[in-house]
Amino acid sequence: MPMNGVVIWYSRQDFRAIIWCEDSKELGIAGGPTAWRNPMISVEVGDCVSFRPEMRGSDRMCRDVRVIQSQAAPSLPAVMLARTQRATVSPNRLLHLCSSRD
Predict the structure, then answer these.
(1) pLDDT tens, 48-80?
(2) Domains of the chain: which residue ranges?
(3) Does 3.10.20.80 match the CATH number of domain 3-99?
(4) Which of 4, 7, 76, 88 is most buried (CB neighbours < 10 A)?
(5) pLDDT tens by residue, 12-29
(6) Nearest to 6 by CA among 55, 83, 74, 52
(7) What is the mean pLDDT of the chain?
(8) Do residues 51 and 3 touch, judged by C-beta distance below 8 A?
């Protein structure tokens, strides 16, 4: 069953993409030119795409990806980043080192 999503990262050199999926579960991964229906089409972050999802372990691979609307949501990656919570930094350097990943 086809699924829709929005491209939130794209590498023109490798034809790879990360796709936010309409069900808001796992992100989709388009891995290389064979994932695309037409690998020569121009793809940009924010394009709405349709694809056939395939689970490979815990990864959602996207197959037969095609653009259905260019620039449908160009600000989606920025909105997603803005909504992530930033960890507070402790003024005590020892506690900061023990409780932080950065």
Answers:
(1) 999 999 999 999 999 999 999 999 988 888 887
(2) 3-99
(3) no
(4) 7
(5) 888 899 999 999 889 999
(6) 74
(7) 84
(8) yes
From the number of C-beta atoms within 10 Å of its C-beta (0-12, 13-18, 19+), residue 50 rates as middle
Q: In the 8-state DSSP scheme, what is residue 90?
A: P
56 φ, ψ to 5°? -125, 95
The half-sphere exposure of 17 on its side-chain side, counting CA atoms within 13 A, is: 34
Structure tokens at 13: 């050199």
What's the number of CA atoms in the CB half-sphere (13 Å) around residue 75?
Answer: 3
pTM above 0.85, yes or no: no
Q: How is residue 14 written in tokens?
A: 């490798």
CA 73 to CA 62: how far, in whole Å? 19
Q: What is the Cα–Cα distance from 43 to 17, expressed in whole angstroms?
A: 9
Residue found under tokens 């997603």:
80
